[in-house]
Write a structure and sequence with these properties.
Length: 134
């Protein structure tokens, strides 16, 4: 009987660990976890410089990311998608906004990784903003 009881306790403990672990990883993806690729950032450079560079610099974006601490990355992306470039809002394709945003992430100093930044699959909703440089 004691052995059965210990087994039950062990199974419960493992289940709890799986639950806690799953919860923690779902909550903890941040913009510092490599959420865009080097290729995307490079692809967005020319477009960024042509369409955004005249009005903003890296310090501007650092402030914008700091102001959006803890928000889903998607909020900031959608702000850009709808309102930028301020002189011709919404004038680019989603895929162009993605590579421009990847370039901005690299400008600010967030690390690149293996996963492409992708608006269409909804993954940006699960990425939290944390201030650059911390
Ligand atoms: C003609 C000037 C101009 C151009 C071009 C321009 N912006 Fe903006 N941008 C603004 C203004 C004005 C604001 C709002 C006022 C502010 O926050 O300073 C703004 C705000 C922003 C913000 C802050 C959003 C927030 O709430 O966090 C971001 C990020 C941004 N722009 C990105 C871009 C990107 C990316 C491009 C190119 C696709 C771009 N901008 C092109 C003028 C411009």
């Amino acid at each position: 009987m004691k052995a059965v009881k210990n087994t039950v306790v062990a199974v419960l403990a493992v289940s709890a660990a799986v639950l806690v672990g799953g919860y923690a990883s779902a909550q903890s993806t941040t913009v510092k976890d490599g959420v865009y690729t080097v290729e995307q950032a490079a692809a967005g450079k020319e477009l960024y410089e042509r369409r955004c560079g005249a009005c903003h610099n890296a310090d501007f974006y650092k402030t914008a990311f700091t102001n959006r601490n803890n928000q889903p990355l998607q909020y900031m992306f959608e702000e850009i998608l709808v309102n930028m470039p301020a002189d011709t809002p919404g004038s680019m394709m989603d895929s162009e906004y993605e590579i421009v945003f990847a370039h901005i992430l690299s400008l600010v100093g967030y690390p690149a990784g293996d996963t492409e930044l992708n608006y269409g699959n909804g993954s940006m909703a699960d990425i939290s903003v944390v201030p650059p440089g911390n």
